[in-house]
Specification:
This protein is an all-alpha fold. It is built from 10 helices and no strands.
Length: 251
Amino acid sequence: MELASYHWIGIVLIGILQGFLNTVAGGGSLLVLPALTFLGMDLAVANGTNRVAILLQSISGAASFRQQKALSLNVAMPLAAASTLGAIVGTFLAVSVDKRVLNLVIAFLISIMAVLLVFNPKMWEGKQERQWPKWAVYSVFFAVGIYGGFIQAGVGFFFSWALALAAGMDLVSGNAIKTIIIGCYTAVSLGMFFMSGLVNLPVGLVLALGSMGGAVLGAKFTVAKGNKWVRWVLAVVVVISATKMVLDALA
């Protein structure tokens, strides 16, 4: 795959947008994967290469949240452990999945999330006094980790949902914790993709250069604007992503 200078600039810009979206809401990989395949990269390699940027943007975002005193590692690490175990299973999955059916199912689920974002703000903007039993919470994060290890694209939506519904977190705290969770399991899955020869390291590092900057901007936006702004950004991104998935499935 030969790339011109303007291709590399475009990869950096896509990375910035991905890092911002993934930190504030999710769905950044839904932009990156089509962009890399458009440049001539095999989808499996694009899926692995994208994880270089995901890992480094997670580290960058987590550091920014930590600096702003918005991140609790004590809360994040057990959830990250459960998600990482799930990601190992997801990365090893050898089943055949119909991409159209998968897109429609994911679009349906995140459409429900969009409705809840708009019409049930209390679920997202305040910490819940009650949360699910720990075994149930860890089971949910294990399940989302399986999806993240297998596909990655759109996983941030499901982690946001799990953090709000199962763990009782508001969006600002949840976004901070999400950077740790995704960073931990991505480190494992990236290693597995790399050993399988499915990572284009130069492209991944250039993509990560933009993603790290976007993640810092996203973390600052999240803390500065608060739950209400983040909820509406998340709602808009979810609707756009669900629409894209439906159109891809019907194409």
